[in-house]
Amino acid sequence: AAAQGSRPADSGPDLDEALFASIADAVADAARTAASGPAAGPAALGSGTVDALRRAVAQCWNIGPLSTEAQAVTVTVGFRLARDATPEGDVRMIDYTGGSEAAARQAFEAARRAILRCGATGFPLPADSYDAWREVEMTFNPESMRIR
């Protein structure tokens, strides 16, 4: 087992794949939420769009500095996107599992920072499908990133 210290997490290919897999669940939740909306229909997000959003968020999601307890928390967040695919308004915590309220706040802040940082210039989403992706709900699960 690797020592857990203040060292940054390894960002090699295995970790990247695990990170992408972890975020895939979050984006799949977002796509399901969008597809269940009233105007989604055929404009619902396709797998290529979901993958692009997943990769965009994955580039900024950093759980390395979180406490050991916060690294065990799964947090679900919700946010709204403007027509230019940038976050609009507040990112809010919807739910969490696996830790204390303080640990959940840490995990939420890591997810919020990832969304705001990587969304600052707009996510790679098709403008003609705005109704399918304007309201997003994502579940971030740091546990699924672990490779052992």
How would you sum up this structure, described in words?
The chain is of the alpha+beta class and 148 residues long. The protein has a single domain (13-145), classed as Fusion Protein Consisting Of Minor Coat Protein, Glycine Rich Linker, Tola, And A His Tag, Chain: A, Domain 2, CATH 3.30.1150. Helices cover 39% and strands 17% of the residues. The protein has four helices and three strands; from the N terminus they run ααββααβ. The protein has helices at residues 13-35, 47-58, 101-119, 130-133, and strands spanning 74-81, 87-97, 135-140. The chain has a three-stranded antiparallel beta sheet with strand order 2-1-3. Strand 1 and strand 2 (87-97) form a beta hairpin. Helix 1 packs across helix 2 (47-58). The chain is elongated and about 40 Å long. The termini are close together. Residues 1-12 and 31-43 have low confidence and may be disordered.
